[in-house]
Write a structure and sequence with these properties.
By secondary structure, the protein is of the alpha+beta class. Helices cover 33% and strands 32% of the residues.
Length: 242
């Protein structure tokens, strides 16, 4: 799926972009300048519904801004020379402190380098409660969407969320060949040592060093058993088996 594919429902395309990007521009209302705009760069992950997750230090200027006013915006865009010509999404909402260990694990699975400082007492996880998304999919393809039109409805997916860490560990321990084949043959990404970093109802996330890739399922899944079936199906496809 391309980011600016006009044949796709814009909320779904915007959601996939949010799931795919590993860092975004974070805009907050600046305390030091009396509420002026302040932009910074932040690592991102997302929940199963695609709500953005941030791991921020209380010492950072943007965190002090959020403490005073939790209204924020995140700009998700591809880091390329032609970024303006590609899809981008400005996600608007409120940054809420989050103590969900499953969501924290999702963030750290995507950003392994954050493990070293995530235990510091000043680092806390935030979840963005999305209110609206301004999505630009290309020239003339511009949409302002309600948050619910972009976020994925995770009703019935609690088992998948609870099983995600075990699925990731199993695939990375016992099925490394399949994970590499996903990247090589289904996404067209070279290199070895690809690892599964996330499983959500719509697809899987892969990571290798500082590279990330996304692979969608044919249809949404909601349980560990459905995840297993979907991963086996992808493995067959990656091997050219019918």
């Amino acid at each position: 799926m391309t980011i600016d594919d006009r044949d796709k429902e814009p909320g779904r395309v915007a959601r996939r972009l949010i799931r795919t990007i590993r860092q975004a521009t974070l805009a907050t209302l600046d305390v030091e300048t009396g509420g002026g705009p302040y932009a910074s760069l932040a690592l991102t992950a997302c929940g199963h519904d695609a709500s953005p997750l941030l791991l921020l230090s209380d010492l950072a200027r943007h965190s002090r801004n959020i403490a005073a006013d939790d209204r924020v915006s995140l700009l998700f865009a591809k880091s390329t020379r032609d970024a303006i010509a590609l899809g981008r999404a400005s996600v608007v909402g409120r940054a809420e402190l989050c103590d969900d260990p499953l969501l924290r694990n999702r963030f750290l699975a995507r950003h392994a380098g954050a493990q070293s400082f995530s235990q510091f007492s000043d680092f806390r996880l935030y979840r963005l409660a999305v209110e609206s998304v301004h999505f630009v999919g290309g020239f003339g393809n511009i949409h302002t969407l309600e948050g619910d039109a972009v976020m994925f409805d995770t009703a019935g997916s609690a088992e998948l969320a609870a099983s995600e860490a075990d699925i990731i560990d199993h695939m990375n321990s016992d099925h490394t060949e399949s994970v590499n084949l996903y990247a090589h043959n289904l996404i067209g990404r070279p290199g070895m040592d690809w690892r599964l970093t996330g499983v959500d109802p719509e697809g899987i996330d892969l990571g290798r060093n500082d590279a990330d890739a996304r692979l969608d399922f044919d249809q949404p899944i909601h349980s560990a058993e459905e995840a297993r079936a979907a991963l086996v199906k992808l493995a067959h496809a990656a091997r050219g088996e019918t």
